[in-house]
Amino acid sequence: MAEIELIKKFLDDTSNENSKPMDGDAPPPEKPCPRGARVYRLPEPDTLPDETVDFLEMIELRASVREYTNRALTLDELSFLLWCSQGVKGGTANGGTIRNVPSAGARHALETYILVNRVEGLERGIYRFLALGHALLPVKTGDEMPGDFTSAFHKKGMVEQSAATFIWCADFMRMAHRYGNRAARYIFLDAGHACQNLYLAGHVKKIGTCAVGSFDDARLNGFFGFDGANDFAVYAATVGKVE
Questions:
Q1: 142, 145, 158, 196: which sits with the fewest CB atoms below 10 Å from its CB?
Q2: What angle do CA 198, 137, 87 make, to 5 degrees?
Q3: What is the CATH number of the domain that holds 221?
Q4: pTM of the model
Q5: What's the angle, vertex CA 200, arms to CA 195 and CA 203, rounded to 5?
């Protein structure tokens, strides 16, 4: 079967034997913020309230939630979700970052974009999470937002109803510099780590979460201006209040 041969080729191409690190300096741990851009500082993680949780109960009750109320998220809540899923705790000697989720070689090749529908204090639009400074960079807001953005998702109604939708996009060279072809495996694993943390963080705050893997790659990449090779959308998740 052609599908089986395709999988075999992928596994062979991305094996350790066929993957070599690249020469030169490693890409930075975060895409640069344009000079002079307006940035929204999020509530600092150490100011967010502590939560007491029953860990076993949290694991047992984790579930995908696809319907949300029309209540907005607060900035504290969005900050909490971003911190838990991609928050930076420190750096490494080789230019990597230590975050609240694991990543091969601490490369953390994901950039987190947020579709904001209902978040207090934020205009509707797309923002990029600046993990190093725990802030949001507006990408397209207000009239700049194309009306058909959500049509890139096959379950567009869920995206439209969400208070916010997380979209994890890969900076492939950030991972490939160290791992070569094998980076193609690690990036998708990293996205799973981030999404699971989002699920658990949302459960603590009574915020529903649903992972989204079905979308039009070309359309979503085109919206962000990605070439689909060096930069591309990997995974998404909707979040919203459930009570």
A1: 142
A2: 35
A3: 3.40.109.10
A4: 0.96
A5: 125
